[in-house]
């Protein structure tokens, strides 16, 4: 390691990555100086601005380091860093927390990515000191060593100055080291090989040659882990670098790679497949004539059917690829299904035409070797075809009908309803019967196949097998869920009768058989089944609730009644799903109201009252949240029960929601308030309800009058309370709502009521107390004028800015990290290793 | 990696060091791949909080590669990544856990999701729907119930103490087995019993080693200490804040305080935030068989989880004058109600905050535990912490003594230590190796360990071979193993032992004869025939039990050994004996050669 990281030569600051501003000049992005302390460089005050915009930068792309956004080191951090470096360099002071080192790296990364890595080193010599120190052999913790290595690699990768790499084989054991090798290889060749694409490896820089011969050695090795490592390094290289020199590298190494295929079994087959695919995807290599396609074809035929699947899928996903190879790859994927069809004495149909390259016997052998092998191969095949089906580059013609036939057959073999006619079929049947894994995979694929059409009799078979699964008492909960999903997809894809927006007669027929099955599932002892049944029902009503045929079939079944009973299910997930389903049923007028002759005088509780009861009493959040969703939808759609007395409804719901312990219920309350607000102010819902844009036309009527209904339902009390909610999303939502409202009120004509001063002052005082965390007294009824005056006096923009920052922003800052790391040294005792 | 060659491989992700790591272990056993736990790391706010599943996905799709996932208990460092793993990475297979874990796990996941979404930058997090869909893949198991995952793989759960529903799992394929302990506790506490496992002698025991070197003081002392501190604070009129996670330790502390309040007849109110007591009560009542004997016994008279003194907390109560004790979530003071109350009470030295568990860096809990007293809050405000800060570890892990005890109980062939700190693990490793004479491993994060085992592989014997053996007249005797010669044919992953003739026939091979030859020089001036005769006479007298023949062509045979005498080309006084024998008579052949090399007896001359 001693010579591992040396020669950090001076690098120039990349002007393209820095934007220089003088304070106050046009484009100066910051309001005041103290927000981002300036740095003197070359005698001129300069500010380094974050080039990557929030949400578009590397942080956002990787979803990392969100908290460590300070891109230059502030003086406080600079002061803390030397102390921390000396702690890290001291083996007697163990660092107890991996995450701190990771976060520290995150921070350095954001700094170096802003282009100031040299600056970082120059201004913080303690870092270089640390790097030099850890290179000395000593009893250093592996964590700190790993940290230092990664820091060095990160700094090196930033500059064109990484001159040497020690060919230490121990570097090669971890994937991190592999990554570093790829970096170094790429960097070392950036200069010399870039200008001369013809440059042979013999003329490459010494360090690059060393790496290459190391990879060659590993590929020749008899040990699979070493081969795997080498293949992985190459995969990363060809995946990330598309420079001409990669072609030279591939030409040199491909014979060694091809030699791996001669071994039986092929070592590190997965990594080999990954490598070949990454080579095939590389624009430099796939366009050249370096025997790549031949190698791929050879590999396809050498690997076992199970191993060849991912390669076949990868080949079929390629944009550019010879037709013959595509056909060979598709044949690999289709072969197991061909075997299934043949074993059950069915004509493989179109599958035959794809399947001309032999290898069938190997596939049959695999399928019949053992249950595990058979199940594994079928599941993988189905999954690969499922991934392939929706792709534009999938093979054409797509053998939809044979695939449907094969999938239905597999499902029948699994359920035991298929009659095998051959020995092979008998074997398959024995392996597959009751196999949940294959059932799940086949149902998933069957659902995907609904995107295409099929011959009428095959579609009939599809519905029949789905019904068989939905009815069977042997179907496991997970299989039933998939069966419901596949059923919905097939119903959705069935053509609608021309002229009438109803389901086609075919699907109608199926529905008539399906609906009697559903009650059984809604009464299942497994909550998973009840829930999946309800989810399916909700989807169905959402899609066909308005269609006569469906309505008749549904009303003739026990489904609506059972659904209502499930509102009192012991499982909260089921209650929530029942709430959603009942909301839909009621919206579509499908809720069964007790027929008066049967229930004379029986006053059934209205659904609205029932849902309000759930909202105020259910101990779990899910049903309460579901109720809020239903109510919001009802308000939006003008549901009859709501329209009867909208103000009373809104007032009641907001009152209950404001008491809720679940912040998502409170947030949903704001959503409902917003819908009401839009309806009251006469503004149609826009796509972006929070967009603060003046309305196109000011609605008629004086402002006070328009606001009065909002005041009557105590919407403002609810929103103001939510504004100081301890859960940030609620406060944010409320802030947006109030900003929207203020923008709306600005457009109103007529006297802009200012409200009586004492009243406004008392509301403002109350709000201040709330902000301080004091819940205090309710505001009571507020006059519209007071509301408008309070709204105008509030710094809502400022509040929104503050809320936009995460609640632990301060704790996540680099300064806080450094302080924590320093404070922890020696503070934690023996017994601190703990778990929550 | 494995299969009939009898090798385990496992990979340990997370769990190193003194942080709240992600437990996630991949075990390959007898060709089956099982993932043990799927934990998350509280210390990160990005994808690093979850295990790096690319270790597994590089072997293909998760659902194809893994045969099942097992979750040991509901703590987030053991199950927190589950919805991410199943719904976002895309695992579609079965997930096994105990009934209480199945009930409680979604509550904690939901709780954590809400805290995470509450903060900024947590958009890419799993949703409630994902938690539900994930829970639908769960198969709940009972203690000591052998669950057949498929034809070859079976699992069995054992009581682990630690938290409600925690279990150790035995994973078995054929004759090979692994036991994974998860977190466990070998001493009973206020509400749970001690871990127990039978003498299952697994090939490998994977055990946590959080307290690898510690012999913990009795829990009673810590409890006394805790009560004393709370009591003192309340007596001086202070408010006590106990940040906790919704379920688990909170219930233990509630029982403790409730009993103490009852005994001391204390009047200060105790509150529990966010209505979680109700839910906890429900589950503790539902799973009363999982608690300890004392709770089960007293259950009929009084349910320990129905608290007389502990009331639901309302946000407004925080401003009430006078002493009180509040349990509030979350446990690390990083968001929500506990943090809000902390900010209110921090300035008063009469108040106290008791942290009953570990806090990750970046939380207010971590800061105050490491002694920081001036905390920067939003808007450059500085919060001065004057309240008393106490740390009390109530975590229920086995200490060094407990771990040794469990190894003694299970009698494994090998031990693997996870979930601990390297230096301490090293100490324990030596102790285990010395005391139990078994190999002990402590792999680092992401490291794979492969372990050879001696699996029993069934071999079929051909009827012909057995009949031939029987024909020798000896009846089979279980106590006297006999040597049976045959040819082992491996075909289609089947093993058969057949006679060599049958093997040749089946495989369509021709038989080859192998003969050893040797030249022995004899000083004998007589004719070749006479020399051969002398050799015959000599051998006949020495090798009485063997069939020695003198053939008409002048050569001599002893069993399959052939001896011919020839004249020496240069020295007429010397004869050359050409000796050749088959490999079956190798022993006799070499004996005979050494005899001849000594020369022929003079007496006969």
Automatic annotation (TrEMBL), chain B:
Keywords, comma-separated and alphabetical: Cytoplasm, Hydrolase, Metal-binding, Nucleus, Zinc
A cellular-component GO term for this protein: cytosol
Cofactors named for this entry: Zn(2+)
Keyword Nucleotide-binding found: no
InterPro entries recorded: Beta_Casp, INTS11-like_MBL-fold, IntS11_C, MBL, Metallo-B-lactamas, RibonucZ/Hydroxyglut_hydro, RMMBL
Keyword Cytoplasm in record: yes
Main localization category: cytoplasm
Domain Beta-Casp, chain residue ranges per copy: 250-368
Family in the record: Belongs to the metallo-beta-lactamase superfamily. RNA-metabolizing metallo-beta-lactamase-like family. INTS11 subfamily.
Quaternary structure and interacting proteins, as annotated: Component of the Integrator complex, composed of core subunits INTS1, INTS2, INTS3, INTS4, INTS5, INTS6, INTS7, INTS8, INTS9/RC74, INTS10, INTS11/CPSF3L, INTS12, INTS13, INTS14 and INTS15. The core complex associates with protein phosphatase 2A subunits PPP2CA and PPP2R1A, to form the Integrator-PP2A (INTAC) complex. INTS11 is part of the RNA endonuclease subcomplex, composed of INTS4, INTS9, INTS11 and inositol hexakisphosphate (InsP6). Interacts with WDR73; interaction is required for the assembly of the RNA endonuclease subcomplex in the cytoplasm.
Protein name from the UniProt record: Integrator complex subunit 11
Organism name: Panthera leo (Lion)
Gene designation: INTS11
């Amino acid at each position: 390691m001693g010579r591992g990281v040396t020669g950090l030569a001076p690098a120039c600051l990349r002007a393209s990555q820095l934007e220089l501003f003088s304070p106050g000049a046009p484009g100066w992005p910051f309001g005041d100086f103290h927000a981002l302390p300036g740095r003197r460089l070359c005698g001129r005050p300069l500010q380094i601005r974050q080039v990557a915009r929030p949400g578009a930068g590397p942080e956002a792309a990787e979803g990392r380091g969100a908290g460590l956004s300070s891109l230059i080191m502030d003086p406080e951090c600079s002061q803390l860093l030397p102390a921390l470096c000396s702690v890290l360099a001291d083996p007697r002071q163990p660092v107890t927390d991996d995450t701190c080192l990771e976060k520290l790296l995150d921070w350095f990364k954001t700094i170096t990515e802003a282009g100031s890595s040299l600056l970082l080193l120059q201004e913080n010599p303690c870092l270089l000191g640390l790097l030099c120190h850890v290179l000395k052999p000593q009893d250093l913790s592996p964590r700190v060593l790993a940290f230092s290595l990664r820091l060095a690699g990160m700094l090196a990768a930033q500059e064109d100055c990484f001159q040497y790499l020690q060919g230490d084989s121990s570097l090669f054991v971890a994937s991190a080291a592999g990554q570093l090798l790829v970096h170094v290889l790429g960097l070392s060749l950036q200069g010399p090989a870039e200008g001369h694409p013809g440059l042979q490896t013999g003329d490459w820089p010494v360090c690059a040659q060393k790496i290459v011969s190391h990879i060659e050695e590993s590929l020749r090795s008899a040990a699979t882990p070493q081969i795997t490592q080498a293949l992985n390094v190459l995969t990363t290289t060809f995946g990330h670098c598309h420079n001409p020199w990669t072609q030279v590298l591939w030409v040199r190494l491909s014979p060694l790679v091809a030699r791996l295929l001669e071994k039986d079994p092929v070592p590190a087959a997965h990594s080999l497949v990954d490598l070949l695919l990454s080579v095939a995807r590389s624009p430099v290599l796939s366009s050249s004539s370096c025997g790549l396609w031949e190698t791929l074809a050879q590999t396809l035929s050498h690997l076992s059917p199970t191993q060849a699947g991912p390669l076949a899928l990868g080949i079929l996903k390629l944009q550019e690829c010879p037709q013959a190879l595509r056909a060979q790859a598709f044949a690999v994927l289709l072969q197991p299904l061909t075997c299934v069809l043949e074993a059950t004495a069915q004509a493989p149909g179109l599958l035959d035409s794809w399947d001309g390259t032999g290898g069938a016997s190997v596939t049959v052998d695999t399928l019949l070797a053992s249950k595990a092998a058979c199940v594994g191969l079928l599941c993988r095949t189905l999954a690969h075809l499922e991934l392939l089906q929706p792709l534009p580059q999938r093979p054409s013609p797509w053998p939809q009908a044979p695939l449907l036939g094969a999938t239905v057959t597999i499902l029948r073999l699994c359920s035991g309803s298929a009659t095998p006619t051959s020995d092979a079929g008998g074997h398959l049947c024995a392996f597959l019967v009751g196999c949940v894994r294959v059932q799940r995979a086949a149902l998933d694929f069957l659902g995907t196949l609904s995107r295409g059409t099929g011959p009428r009799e095959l579609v009939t078979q599809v519905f029949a097998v789905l019904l068989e699964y939905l009815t069977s008492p042997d179907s496991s909960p997970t299989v039933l869920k998939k069966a419901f999903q596949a059923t919905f997809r097939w119903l959705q894809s069935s053509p609608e009768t021309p002229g009438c927006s109803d389901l086609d007669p075919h699907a109608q027929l199926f529905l008539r058989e399906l609906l009697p099955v559903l009650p059984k599932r809604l009464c299942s002892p497994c909550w998973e089944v009840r829930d999946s049944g309800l989810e399916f029902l909700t989807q169905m009503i959402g899609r066909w609730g308005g269609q006569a045929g469906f309505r008749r079939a549904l009303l003739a079944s026990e489904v609506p009644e059972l659904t209502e009973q499930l509102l009192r299910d012991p499982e909260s997930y089921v209650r929530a799903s029942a709430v959603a389903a009942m909301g839909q049923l009621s919206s579509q007028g499908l809720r069964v109201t007790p027929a008066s002759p049967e229930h004379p005088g029986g006053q059934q509780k209205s659904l609205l009252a029932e849902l309000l009861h759930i909202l105020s009493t259910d101990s779990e959040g899910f049903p309460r949240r579901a109720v809020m969703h239903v109510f919001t939808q009802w308000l939006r759609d003008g549901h009859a029960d709501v329209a009867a007395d909208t103000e009373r409804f809104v007032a009641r719901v907001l009152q209950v929601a404001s008491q809720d312990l679940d912040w998502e219920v409170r947030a949903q309350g704001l959503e409902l308030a917003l819908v009401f607000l839009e309806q009251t102010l006469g503004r149609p819902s826009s796509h972006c309800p929070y967009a603060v844009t003046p309305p196109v036309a000011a609605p008629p009527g004086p402002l006070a009058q328009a606001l009065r209904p909002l005041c009557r339902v105590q919407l403002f009390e609810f929103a103001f309370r939510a504004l100081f909610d301890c859960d940030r999303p609620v406060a944010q939502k409320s802030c947006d709502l109030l900003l929207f409202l203020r923008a709306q009120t600005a457009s109103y004509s007529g006297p802009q009521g200012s409200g009586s001063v004492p009243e406004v002052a008392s509301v403002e005082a109350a709000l201040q107390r709330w902000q301080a965390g004091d819940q205090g007294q309710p505001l009571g009824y507020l006059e519209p004028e007071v509301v408008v005056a309070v709204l105008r006096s509030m710094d809502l923009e400022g509040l929104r800015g503050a809320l936009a920052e995460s609640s632990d922003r301060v704790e996540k800052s680099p300064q806080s990290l450094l302080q924590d790391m320093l404070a922890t040294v020696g503070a934690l005792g023996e017994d601190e290793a703990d778990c929550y | 990696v494995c299969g009939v060659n009898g090798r385990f491989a496992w990979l340990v992700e997370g769990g190193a060091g003194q942080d709240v790591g992600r437990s996630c272990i991949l075990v390959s056993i007898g060709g089956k791949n099982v993932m043990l736990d799927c934990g998350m790391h509280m210390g990160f706010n990005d994808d690093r909080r979850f295990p790096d599943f690319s270790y597994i996905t590089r072997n293909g799709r998760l659902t194809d590669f893994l045969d099942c996932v097992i979750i040991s208990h509901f703590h987030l460092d053991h199950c927190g990544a589950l919805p991410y793993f199943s719904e976002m990475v895309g695992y579609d297979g079965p997930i096994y856990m105990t009934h209480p874990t199945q009930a409680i796990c979604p509550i904690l996941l939901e709780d954590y999701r809400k805290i995470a979404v509450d903060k900024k930058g947590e958009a890419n997090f799993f949703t409630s729907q994902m938690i539900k869909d994930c829970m639908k893949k769960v198969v709940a198991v009972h203690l000591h119930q052998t669950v057949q995952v498929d034809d070859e793989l079976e699992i069995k759960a054992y009581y682990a103490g630690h938290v409600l529903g925690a279990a150790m799992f035995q994973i078995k394929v054929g004759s090979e087995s692994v036991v994974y302990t998860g977190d466990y506790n070998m001493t009973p506490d206020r509400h749970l019993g001690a871990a127990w496992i039978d003498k299952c002698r697994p090939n490998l025991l994977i055990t946590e080693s959080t307290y690898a070197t510690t012999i913990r003081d009795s829990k009673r002392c810590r409890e006394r200490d805790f009560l004393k501190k709370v009591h003192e604070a309340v007596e001086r009129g202070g408010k006590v804040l106990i940040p906790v996670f919704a379920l688990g330790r909170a219930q233990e502390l509630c029982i403790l305080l409730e009993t103490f309040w009852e005994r001391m007849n204390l009047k200060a109110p105790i509150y529990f935030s966010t209505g979680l007591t109700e839910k906890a009560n429900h589950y503790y009542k539902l799973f009363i068989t999982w608690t300890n004997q004392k709770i089960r016994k007293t259950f009929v008279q009084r349910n320990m989880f129905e608290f007389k003194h502990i009331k639901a907390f309302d946000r407004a109560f925080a401003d009430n004058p006078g002493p009180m004790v509040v349990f509030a979530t979350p446990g690390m003071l990083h968001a929500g109600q506990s943090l809000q109350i902390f900010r209110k009470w921090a300035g008063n030295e009469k108040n106290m905050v008791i942290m009953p568990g570990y806090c990750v860096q970046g939380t207010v809990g971590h800061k105050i535990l490491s002694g920081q007293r001036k905390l920067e809050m939003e808007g450059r405000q500085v919060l001065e912490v004057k309240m008393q800060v106490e740390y009390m570890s109530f975590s229920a892990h086995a200490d060094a003594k407990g771990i040794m005890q469990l190894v003694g109980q299970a009698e494994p062939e090998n031990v693997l230590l996870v979930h601990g700190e390297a230096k301490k693990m090293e100490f324990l490793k030596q102790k285990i190796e010395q005391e139990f004479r078994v190999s002990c491993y402590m792999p680092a994060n992401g490291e794979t360990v492969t372990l050879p085992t001696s699996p029993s592989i069934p071999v079929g014997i051909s009827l012909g071979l057995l009949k031939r053996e029987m024909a020798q007249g000896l009846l089979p005797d279980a106590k006297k193993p006999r040597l049976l010669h045959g040819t082992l044919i491996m075909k289609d992953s089947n093993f058969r032992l057949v006679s060599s003739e049958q093997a040749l026939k089946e495989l369509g091979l021709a038989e080859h004869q192998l003969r050893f030859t040797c030249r022995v020089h004899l000083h004998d001036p007589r004719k070749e025939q006479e020399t051969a005769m002398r050799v015959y006479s000599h051998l006949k007298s020495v090798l009485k039990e063997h069939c020695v023949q003198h053939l008409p062509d002048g050569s001599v045979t002893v069993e399959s050994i052939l001896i011919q005498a020839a004249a020496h080309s240069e020295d007429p006084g010397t004869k050359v004996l050409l000796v050749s024998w088959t490999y079956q008579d190798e022993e006799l052949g070499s004996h005979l050669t050494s005899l001849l090399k000594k020369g022929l007896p003079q007496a006969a001359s």
